[in-house]
């Protein structure tokens, strides 16, 4: 599955329909990273240090729990990992079945419905299953990533963005790459941190249910934008 490329618009064409068409997928990819940070922070506080999208962190936790012989916690982590993988698999099947011009709004719309179902489970007292479904939805979300000025933006794992930031700065200093790539990677990292900060504040002060309502509203806004932009 190839990454769709988005070039940043030039100064002379600002405000044109073509520029808006280019900015929409780039903006949605940044918002996807923001949402990933928000949901990961919510999951972290509710799942005792586990995440709904950061599977590298969960995999590290899995190794530590196996070393300690904590089979119950290992089972929870394996459930989250399996949910994420199944989400990525089913999302990819849907992604490939939809025409290119409808993929982003289809994936985001499906993710929105999944988060609403997760919210219903949480409200019904099944918080664990609800957050597992959120992890499934995050597997879908990683399909909306875009290459913005050569930077892969929109995934829920941020380590690659930090490596890309350092690498693109080095290339810019040598004159072999655009500074725009470094700016895009930096924006992705900042968006993730902003989302994680917001998610942490929400869950600490408002609780899980209201936090997921806010996350669903953000996602609903993303769906609306994708529909209006026809992407």
Structure description:
The chain is mainly alpha-helical and 231 residues long. It has a single domain, classed as Growth Hormone, Chain: A (Up-down Bundle). Helix content is 75%, strand content 3%. A three-stranded mixed β-sheet has the order 1-2-3. Strand 2 (146-148) and strand 3 (151-153) form a beta hairpin. The protein is globular and about 50 Å long. The chain starts with a strand and ends with a helix.
Q: Could you outline the blueprint of secondary structure elements for this entry?
A:
Layout: E1 5-6, H1 17-46, H2 55-68, H3 71-97, H4 103-123, H5 127-141, E2 146-148, E3 151-153, H6 159-174, H7 179-206, H8 208-229
Parallel strand pairs: 1-2
Antiparallel strand pairs: 2-3
Helix pairs in contact: 1-5, 1-7, 1-8, 2-3, 3-4, 3-5, 4-5, 4-8, 6-7, 7-8
Summarize the structure.
The protein is mostly helical and 231 residues long. It has one domain: Up-down Bundle (Growth Hormone, Chain: A), CATH 1.20.1250.
Order of helices and strands: EHHHHHEEHHH
Specify the helix fraction band: over 70%
Radius of gyration: 18 Å
Identify the overall geometry: globular
Counted beta strands: 3
Give the CA-CA distance, first to last residue.
17 Å
Number of helices: 8
CATH fold call:
Growth Hormone, Chain: A
Q: How many distinct domains?
A: 1
Our estimate of the beta-strand percent is under 5%
What ranges have pLDDT less than 50 throughout 5 or more consecutive residues? 1-15
Annotation keywords:
231 residues; 3% strand; three-stranded mixed beta sheet; Growth Hormone, Chain: A; mainly alpha; globular; single chain
